[in-house]
Design the sequence.
């Protein structure tokens, strides 16, 4: 590598740490941006699963790190109000839309994560988040999903009969994407991570598999071995050269 380039990289890395808005950020962003675009991969067949399990900030993190999940986004579904908003969701529930490659992960595995990631027995809420918009729902598309969802709910209920699993299973009708500030919420709270992937414009951030994984990492909801792997990868990138994270 050209020595001037190396010095410039080192300078940019140091700026990354000393200033929340480094002078080098614009240049860094352009360069990272052009590289990142090629990293967005589109598997041939992507399926969609939608779940409501409490606050969609956390829900998005819960699914983002799974192998085979291509991307996640958050929105509102399950109600009748048109154009729901965060402060005014009407009768909708906050939910996560999971796009996945069925060759790598099965719908039934997503259901397992759904059950493991929330308390399906709490009525209209999760922990301190209380309200109708935090209710638990599996949105289905087609009879196969209905059958798998119903069977998984029965298994969940069978674990204990002392309280009722409140989860509803209902066909997915309209999904309203949530406002930009709620997408990749955990990642957006970590400016350094955003910068590491090149401060992507909003629409690329939404489409990026890498951002999806990092959002889960930022929420602390990757599997422990993945949390560790991503942590050390970030460390490597910061130590060794051009500070752009392209894959994990
Ligand atoms: C249901 O799945 C099919 C493909 O299997 C898709 O074309 C359709 O858009 C889906 N419906 C909804 C409401 O997402």
Sequence:
């Amino acid at each position: 590598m050209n020595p001037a380039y190396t010095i410039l990289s080192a300078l940019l890395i140091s700026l990354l740490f000393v200033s929340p808005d480094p002078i080098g950020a614009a240049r860094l962003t352009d360069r990272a941006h052009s590289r990142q675009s090629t990293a967005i991969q589109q598997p041939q067949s992507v399926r969609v699963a939608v779940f409501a399990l409490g606050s969609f900030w956390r829900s998005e993190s819960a699914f983002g790190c799974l192998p085979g999940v291509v991307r996640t986004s958050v929105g509102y579904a399950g109600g009748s109000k048109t154009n729901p908003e965060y402060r005014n969701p009407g009768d909708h529930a906050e939910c996560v839309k999971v796009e996945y490659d069925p060759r790598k992960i099965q719908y039934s595995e997503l259901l397992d994560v759904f059950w493991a990631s929330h308390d399906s027995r709490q009525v209209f809420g999760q922990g301190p988040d209380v309200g109708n918009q935090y209710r638990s729902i599996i949105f289905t598309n087609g009879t196969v999903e209905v059958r798998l969802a119903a069977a998984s709910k029965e298994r969940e209920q069978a674990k204990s009969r002392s309280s009722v699993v409140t989860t509803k299973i209902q066909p997915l009708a309209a999904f309203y994407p949530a406002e930009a500030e709620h997408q990749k919420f955990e990642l957006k709270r970590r400016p350094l991570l955003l910068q590491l992937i090149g401060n992507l414009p909003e629409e690329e951030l939404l489409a990026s598999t890498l951002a999806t994984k990092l959002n889960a990492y930022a929420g602390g909801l990757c599997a422990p071995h993945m949390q560790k792997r991503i942590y050390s990868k970030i460390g490597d990138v910061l130590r060794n050269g051009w500070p752009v994270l392209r894959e994990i």
